[in-house]
Design goal:
With 409 residues, this protein is α/β, with parallel strands linked by helices. Helices cover 34% and strands 26% of the residues.
Length: 409
Amino acid sequence: MGRVFLAFIVMVWAGVAGAQERDFSALARLDRVESGLSEGWRGAAELTLSLSQGVPWRVFTLDEPRRVVLDFKEIDWEGLTADALGSVEGVAAVRFGAYRPGWSRMVLDLERPFAVQSAGMVVEEATGKARLELVLAPSDTLAFAKAAGAPHDPRWDLPVPADTTEISREAKPEWAPTVVVLDPGHGGIDPGAERDGVREKDLMLMFARELRDVLRRAGGFEVILTRDADVFVSLEGRVALAHQHQADVFVSLHADSLSQGNAKGATFYTLSEEASDAASALLAERHNRADILSGVDLSGADDEVTDVLLDLARLETEPRTMMLAATFVEALQDTTVRLNRKPLREAGFSVLKAADVPSVLVELGFMSNQQDLANLVDPGWRAAMAAGLRDGLLAWVVEDKAARALVRQ
């Protein structure tokens, strides 16, 4: 029953979307005072969103873990906090933000199964203001799982990533620029770590742009960003982009927060099934949950990489990756950038799983550490970090070409 109801909502949207897009501009503003979560009748949870105008929208549920996902075209969430929406029993958390250019998403994490009992948007004819009301009624595990699943519609969904198992690469001439894919962590609905009003996603996008400019001025590099705006990009999509551009290097940029211990200083992570320490394992687990937190349907995903060709590709790529990480550390050792006491670490970060592309995840620092946070917001410190990473890449390119030439002989 739930699946049919959700399909009906999408069908209604498809029928009126054209009219809505003609009548409304792209961005709706949220009235924080008249929006929120509340307890309903017989254990129901009710969500009300008051908008400055009507927008196309849809709702569906996902399982493992249980979530309710609402998509909009498009809402300005400026100034809204999860606390401002309130809380109800059975809803563990609410997150919201940009999902892709022109689209917004809200995700409700459920502590127990709910079914979408009713969902509708009413638009006032005189003012154009809109009110969305969603009622979630208590359900059971079996019924929730049966109804769950993301509808597939190219007008709403992220583009299908390119096949990430492709490992054949055309040989590049010696003069060809080194293609570097910079991956600013998080984005859109996924803010990453937050402290004192600073969000990891904003810092990483700013630094990625600065590093891109530094590399371009150095010459010999072609630089691509996995995102150049505050939008969400799936982990699989980030890796697929590296393949699409035949990247020579993939560098994922982060500045996480760890509540346990006193992690501090720049740290460079390479891929390994076994984490080098407990903190690295925790970081990898948090990073790999980004798609789940952002409402991506992973029910058909296969986490196990069993293809023999991929394993063979990694045999060649792994030493090049280790050399890349070590070269970064060496380039930064004599600078003002503070390195972690153990700057080279390993963990199972999904974003590093491009088998044929040397890939490193860089924690520029940890926002949980006050000095690291002060460094991250300091333009002078970021310039020193960017220069160090540039020098590391320049040195690695020379060493890598020399090593590969010896292999060919």
